[in-house]
Amino acid sequence: MPLIFFDLEGPLSPQDNAYEVMGLIPEGHRLFEVISRYDDLLTLEGREAYEPGDTLLLIVPFLLHHGIAAGDVRRVSDRAGLVPGASELLARLRSAGWEAHIVSTSYEQHARTIGASLGFPPEAIHCTRMPFDRLRARLRREDLDRVAEMERIILRDLVGEDLSAGGKDDLIRSRLDPFYWGGGLADALSLGGEGVTVVGGRRKAWTMEAVARSKGSSLRDAVFVGDSITDVQGARMIESLGGLAVAFNGNAFILPHVTVAVAATRLGGLQPVLEAWRQGGRARVKGLIGEAPAADAAEGPHLHWMVGREGSGLDEVIALHKAFRRRMREAAAKLG
Prior knowledge:
By secondary structure, the protein is of the alpha/beta class. The chain is 50% helix and 10% strand. It has a seven-stranded mixed beta sheet with strand order 3-2-1-4-5-6-7, with helices on both faces. Helix 5 runs parallel beside helix 7. The radius of gyration is 20 Å and the shape is globular.
């Protein structure tokens, strides 16, 4: 039974759930954009025990300060839509004998809501457990006062229209490093690597390894579909083992590390790639892409073989996927 792993936010649902949950608090989206940039900086630095997607832990102090709880995450999740064609593609895959899993940084309250709507059993949803009540109980009054003060500093000094340009990177680091990693807040929220574990980066790759091992399978026979920096380690692992790593409307972080890139308005754009994979592995997929007729410019699917693609050829694919991300993911696209 072939295995396929999906990231949730992007390939299956367009909502960035954490971004929308932060929108429940005043100026929450602007706060999230700064913290998301900080997450990128820590990831690119290679900070020990830090993984891309740990943003979902970094925003917790602000959520707790404003009284956000698990039920609020579920209510935001209830408003999330599905990527067009997701239900149909998954139904076809299951009927053809595939076993599908979600491997996502998303809070469990969101991942299980979306997963259930797409027919994933609980044991096939691998995500971030976030016990809001337990974490809230660990925060002291002085911790919450520090959070309130940092919120004021972020909104006064750190927000910007294009944080990805890097103009405020040094200032962001100088303010947020001591806030998160000093003064006891890290211990209170288990930011040092113990306790809550966000399923992103290497942890996403390790989760896929564990699933494959439990099935008596190998990741060289598996497919992984992702779209962002939290998926890079998983994509690199699958690609290095000879499996099929797919970027669906991917960003500039993941596209250099995948086997195939698919830009489309419907998840069904993956269908011919997955059929080719089952028929003849990587060689058949590469042949399919080389023989594919021109896609509909606005709808796709635009298929690219990414192995060895560099320079202007890579830049062209990044620009195409950026346009599709903007259409499909709306506000979340500006986070990368």
